[in-house]
Amino acid sequence: MSTKIILPLLTAMLSVVCVLTGCQSPKAGSPSGISASTRNNCYSLLHQLLDEQKDVSMLRFIKREHIDVKNLVKKIATTSGTGAKLLEEFAKDDPSISLDDIRLPPGELATRDAIASTKEKELLSQTGDEFELTLLLTQTEALSYAWHLAKVTGENEPQPDRAHALAGVSKDMENLYHEVFEMLLSKTKSSATNSIVTQPE
After folding, report:
1. Which of 54, 88, 99, 155 has its C-alpha lying 20 to 30 A from 186's C-alpha?
2. CA atoms of 105 and 107, how far apart (whole Å)
3. How does pLDDT run across 42-51, given as a tens digit for each residue?
4. How far apart are CA 70 and CA 64, in angstroms?
5. Residue 200 lies inside a defined structural domain of this protein
6. Tell me, what DSSP letter sits at residue 24?
7. Which are the contacts of 117, defined by CB distance < 8 A and separation ≥ 6?
8. Is the pLDDT of residue 57 over 50?
């Protein structure tokens, strides 16, 4: 399994709260001009990210994490899957929404692939605390990207119900980002303390 599924704002890498699953399907709209182009590009990048993030918990089959990390990663994966389905429902109800309009410049694509390859090698070669810290770090980057990407997507969505739902996705991603950041900070402090304690006198 490729660990590109966990990469940050690259291969890109959402949390969606219950309120989003209960929103009504919006009616089709027909945005025009640059706003429609920007909207579809944002929708496509966001869907790609969420669709990849939904598989991040599969790392448990090849790596062992502490229960707190495992549960948080599972939460990210589950809510990302819900977010991806939400966007798919939007596209199903409104043919003007495209989820395959990536349009990244070749230099950006090449850079993302290079970073993804580096992260893959790091995560596959690491174990224990080192692996957990790297995993959490990649998740802060991915969640920050998703948080802001959902926000921009919502700002370019003329349909009020969809815009509101996307704002909720953005907020959920922001909350998850802070959860991961706090855990990363805690793990870093713990690792530093253990290093000091185990140093020979």
Report:
1. 54
2. 5
3. 999 999 999 9
4. 8
5. no
6. P
7. none
8. yes
Do the domain assignments include residue 201?
no
Please tell me the pTM assigned to this model: 0.75
Quick check: is 149 in a domain? yes
CATH assignment at residue 41: 1.20.1260
Domain, as residue range, for 116: 9-21+30-191
With beta carbons less than 8 A apart as the criterion, state whether 49 and 146 touch.
yes
> Contact at 8 Å (CB) between 79 and 15?
yes
Report the Cα 67 to chain-centroid distance in Å: 21
Q: Is the pLDDT of residue 114 over 70?
A: yes
Confidence band of 107 (pLDDT split at 50, 70, 90): very high
Number of neighbouring beta carbons within 10 Å of residue 24? 8
Q: What are 119-140's pLDDT values in tens digits? A: 888 888 888 888 889 899 999 9
